[in-house]
Structure formats: C-alpha cells, structure tokens
Specification:
- This protein is an alpha/beta fold and about 400 residues long.
- It folds into 3 domains: about 120 residues, NAD(P)-binding Rossmann-like Domain (Rossmann fold, 3-Layer(aba) Sandwich); about 180 residues, 3-Layer(aba) Sandwich (Rossmann fold); about 80 residues, Erythronate-4-phosphate dehydrogenase, dimerisation domain (Ribosomal Protein S8, Chain: A, domain 1, 2-Layer Sandwich), CATH 3.30.1370.170.
- It is built from 15 helices and 14 strands.
- The strands form 3 sheets. The protein has a 6-stranded parallel β-sheet with strand order 7-6-8-9-10-11, with helices on both faces.
- Helix 3 crosses helix 4 and helix 4 packs antiparallel against helix 15.
- The chain starts with a strand and ends with a strand.
- The structure holds nicotinamide-adenine-dinucleotide and 4-phospho-D-erythronate.
- 4-phospho-D-erythronate (DEZ) binds next to loops.
- The site of nicotinamide-adenine-dinucleotide has 34 residues, from helix 3, helix 4 and helix 5.
- One of its GO terms (biological process) is pyridoxine biosynthetic process.
- It is an enzyme of class 1 (oxidoreductase).
- This is Erythronate-4-phosphate dehydrogenase.
- Pathway: Cofactor biosynthesis; pyridoxine 5'-phosphate biosynthesis; pyridoxine 5'-phosphate from D-erythrose 4-phosphate: step 2/5.
C-alpha cells in the first residue's frame, strides 16, 4: 500500500511505515497527479479534497484528515466513490482552549481588566466550546453558550426518551446568538464552517451582529475565518477603539487581509490547536482509522508517541495576584504573543500568504497546560481551584 501524507503531519513515519510505503508532500502541493498510485491519503486542513483532486485517484480507498474541521473535504463525493473517510474529532480541542484562556488573560492584562469580572459567551459548544465552558466554569467565570443544533438534538433525544418536560427547552445557560451578543462582554466563536442549511455558519457574525457587539467588548475567533464577515469586522475595529479582537482564523487563508490582522490585539496564523499533543492525537486517531479501513492491526499507542514535556513542574511562591499567577503558569507552557509576533515578522519579510504558511510549517514545540504540574502552598486553596479549573495538575508545595 502507498500512503501519501501531508509534510506537516508529525510522526507519520512512526505511525504509517509499518502499514505501507509513506510518501510526503507539503499540503498545498498535493495535486491530482500525486494521487495516481496512492491507496491512502492523509491530509490536514489546507488540502482541498474535491473532484479536481480526485480526478486521477483510481486506487484511493481511504482519506483521513488529522484535524477536527472537515470543511475542506467533499465527504459526499468520497461516500459516492466508496472511499472511507475519517477525521480526528476533538484531537486538538484542549490546545484551542489553552490558547483561548491565555489570550483572554493577556488582553485583560494589556487593557487593565480582570477576566473574573467578565461574562463570556461561547458560540458552538462542541468538543472545543464544551471544554472551554467546563474550564471557565471551573474557574468561576460567568458563561453563556449558544448552540442551536445541539439544543435541537438534545430536545429530539429527550422526546425520544419520553421526557415531556424537556420540550423545546434549552439547557441552562444556553441562549440564542442575539441574546448572547447582548449579554456578554467576551464572545468566543468555535463553530465549524457550514455553508448551507438551517444552521449555516458562513458569516454567522455578519455586519449587523458585529455592529451589535457592545462597546468595550471582545471577539475571539478560533473556529473558521469564514464564520465572520472580515470586512465588517475590519470596519468595526477601525472605528472608535471601543472594541477588540483576537483572531486565529481568517477568510482566505493564507492570503489573509493584513490590515485586519494588524487591527487585532492578537493575530495568529491558525495555530490555536497546534500543540504537539493535539497534532499527535490527530495522527494517532487517523492511524487507527486507516488500520480499521484496511483490516490491519494497530499496535501504536498515543503514549508511545508523546515525548516528556520540557517543563514538568512549576513551584509558585506567595504574593501573586490570582490572575497574575494563572498567566505565569500558562505562559510557562505557551504564550500566544510569540505566535502573534512571528506572524508580524514573517508577513513583513515574506508577504502575508508566505509568512502565514511559514509560521505554521516551522511551528515551535508547544505542549498543553495539562502537562504541567503546579505546586502551591497549602493555604492557597482558591488558587488551587483556579489552576485545576484552568487545566493544570496541581499539588501541594513541599515546605
Ligand atoms: N483554530 C484552530 O486551530 C482550530 C482547531 C480545532 C478546531 N477548529 C475549528 O473549530 C470548529 C469546532 O471544533 P469542535 O471540535 O468544537 O467541533 P464539534 O463538531 O465538536 O462542535 C461544533 C459545535 O458547533 C455547533 N454549531 C454548529 N452550527 C452552529 C451554529 N450555527 N451556531 C452555534 N453552534 C453551532 C455544533 O452543534 C457543535 O456542538 C471545527 O469545526 C474547526 O473548524 C479550529
Ligand atoms: O480543524 C482543526 O483541527 C484545526 O483547524 C487544525 O489545527 C488546523 O491545522 P492545519 O490542518 O491547517 O494544519
């Protein structure tokens, strides 16, 4: 079997070499000709898997994407052709939540407010949004959520189970998008890109909704760029200076609107999910799916793939304000200002499209908050709750 794997998929040789011959190509160079003699294709989000790509893929029996998002894949076409498809749900969700928490705390520090005093609205409460809500709530942050497809699915499920009281009622904390916009200071967008249907998300935040975001509020988008009308967002950000954005995703990547990126407080090149843990989980999930599709045994475990983190333990002393302590621990693992700065530098040097891709291709080692154990004094009970809520392992400091 011949397996073509995107060059940005880590551990591909370790995972796939026992299954067949592994060929590597940068994601944007995978084209119809390169698929001529390929049995299995493993991509990330930058390879559009459509009719044009599959024009000469007569041997192809499997397509896997080591990502959560699937909007780059024509899944209907694959089903019609009898090609097995697999994605990696949830693989980098923890990394995205890490990114959101430290980015919000960074803005709080820069603008002089406390996250604990803000209400956060999460749009899309799936693997990413659901984990974000869980961590924010465990940190005592006031949250609301908006996820009409999930609310609908839960009410259908409740009806099926014969729970009459559940009729059309959204679970506690779930509201519609316009209420969320009215009632929250911070809006975090974690929806997939869906172009059609009753819950389409293309320009879910359109000019009207962007205008309705309250003065002093903040929009963070780590879902897909096309879920927000970029032109309208740029116009709002160029306005009175009463509104901020943290943007990891953009319309038209990698050739994104440089003036929009410049106006964002944090602008990163679609790397919110780029922890090594998240990428390796993706590779591992797709290895298992490929083995299933070809009836092969899969002996590789995720633990075998993950190296020991460079920083395993951090001991905090007394006297730190709580959000300061959180920032310190988070930045010991990951600091999004590094990614913001490298996008700025790379786009100035090479132009936006090449710079954006270069930052992603040469991404430095990043681990997740859960890999760090934070040691605290016994009396720091509240801080221990906050740290554990934020995703760290917490232990009592030895005096
Ligand atoms: N920036 C990054 O690096 C990065 C990393 C991972 C995922 N993502 C993006 O984030 C998206 C979400 O990831 P996930 O793992 O949570 O996916 P998921 O499928 O687990 O959850 C998505 C949630 O969004 C909800 N949703 C769909 N349409 C909606 C709408 N119109 N309004 C509100 N909610 C809606 C769904 O019901 C679901 O609960 C992915 O599809 C991907 O595009 C980006
Ligand atoms: O959908 C996802 O999982 C993310 O958007 C993913 O991290 C994007 O990274 P890429 O596939 O573009 O390397």
């Amino acid at each position: 079997m011949k397996i073509l794997v995107d060059a940005n998929v880590p551990a591909a040789e370790t995972c796939f070499a026992a299954l067949g011959e592994v060929v590597r190509l940068p994601g944007r160079e995978i084209d119809a000709a390169s698929l001529r003699d390929i049995d299995a294709l493993v991509v990330r989000s930058i390879t559009r898997v459509d009719e044009t790509l599959l024009a000469e893929a007569s041997r192809l029996r499997f397509v896997g994407t080591c990502t959560i998002g699937t909007d780059h894949v024509d899944t209907r076409l694959l089903a019609e052709r009898g090609i097995t498809f697999a994605s990696a749900p949830g693989c980098n969700a923890e990394a995205v939540v890490d990114y959101v928490l430290i980015s919000l705390l960074t803005l709080a520090e820069r603008q002089g407010w406390r996250l604990a005093e803000r209400r956060v609205g999460v749009v899309g409460a799936g693997n990413v949004g659901g984990r974000l809500l869980a961590r924010l709530s465990a940190m005592g942050i006031d949250c609301l959520a908006c996820d009409p497809p999930r609310v609908e699915a839960e009410s259908v499920e409740a009806e099926r189970a014969g729970r009459v009281d559940a009729e059309e009622e959204a679970p506690a904390g779930f509201v519609n998008l316009d209420t969320l916009i009215d009632e929250c200071d911070v809006l975090c967008l974690h929806t997939p890109l869906v172009r059609q249907g009753p819950h389409a998300t293309h320009h879910l935040l359109d000019a009207e909704r962007i205008a309705a975001l309250a003065p002093g509020s903040l929009l963070l988008n780590a879902g897909r760029g096309d879920c927000v009308d970029g032109q309208a967002l740029r116009a709002r950000l160029s306005g009175e200076g009463d509104f901020s954005a943290i943007l990891d995703v953009f319309e038209n990547e990698p050739g994104v609107d440089a003036s929009l990126a410049d106006l964002a407080e944090v602008a990163t090149p679609h790397i919110a999910g780029y922890s090594l843990d998240g990428k390796l989980r993706g590779t591992h999930q797709i290895t298992r799916a490929l083995c299933r599709a070809f009836g092969l045994p899969c002996r590789m475990t995720l633990e075998e793939l993950l190296p020991t983190p460079p920083l395993r333990s951090l001991e905090l002393g007394e006297g730190l304000e709580q959000e300061e302590a959180l920032r310190l621990a988070m930045r010991a693992v990951y600091d999004p200002r590094r990614d913001h700065d490298s996008l700025r530098r790379a786009s100035r040097r090479q132009g936006m499209a090449r710079g954006f891709d270069a930052c992603r291709a040469d991404y430095p080692l990043r681990r997740e908050f859960a890999t760090l154990e934070v040691a605290l004094a016994e009396e720091d009970r509240h801080l221990a709750t906050l740290m554990a809520g934020a995703g760290f392992r917490v232990r009592r400091r030895l005096e």
